[in-house]
Design a protein that fits this description.
Helix 1 runs parallel beside helix 3. The chain is globular, with a radius of gyration of 16 Å. The protein has 153 residues and is α/β, with parallel strands linked by helices. It contains 7 helices and 5 strands, in the order ααβαβαβαβαβα.
Length: 153
């Protein structure tokens, strides 16, 4: 039998679990993002995690207003691999998808970027590998975050 308060307990601990993710940034990610910003690039986050978890993680890890736009999962935006979130962010920031880059480490990221007609860079430091991302159409890869500066600039 599941206790009556299990839902409250689960979501409280789930939120705490995700907030701890802010303490585990990949090596070089902050320097890379700072470099992109220095070169005048707008940067955004699009996650399938619910927005109520995404925004606090990003704020804790990078500070308030570090990114130009942060979008987590919402009922209005269809999750990756659909292109809707990328298209929404591009619209909000005033960019054409074909003039932007989506950097991601999951096959759903690659599929979403390609469906949105955005340039995609496979992040090989994350949860996936070159083979899985290639299967979804990825052609450009970065082994380490810092390589993004050479690819994008």
């Amino acid at each position: 039998r599941v206790p009556d308060n299990f839902g409250l307990y689960f979501w409280t601990n789930y939120e705490n679990y995700y907030l701890r993710a802010a303490d585990r940034l990949y090596g070089g990610i902050r320097e890379t993002l700072d470099g992109l910003k220095t070169h005048g690039h707008a940067i955004a986050v699009f996650s399938n995690k619910p927005h109520r978890f995404t925004y606090p993680i990003i704020e804790k890890a990078f500070g308030e207003n570090y990114f130009d736009f942060v979008l987590g999962g919402t009922p209005e935006i269809i999750h990756k691999p659909a292109p809707h979130g990328i298209n929404y962010i591009c619209k909000m920031l005033g960019f054409k998808p074909e003039d932007t880059y989506m950097i991601g480490d999951l096959p759903a990221d690659a599929a979403s970027a390609l469906a949105a007609k955005t340039n995609y860079i496979g992040a090989l430091w994350g949860y996936s590998n070159r083979e899985k991302l290639s299967e979804k159409g990825a052609k450009i890869f970065a082994e380490k975050p810092i390589e993004l500066l050479d690819i994008i600039n």
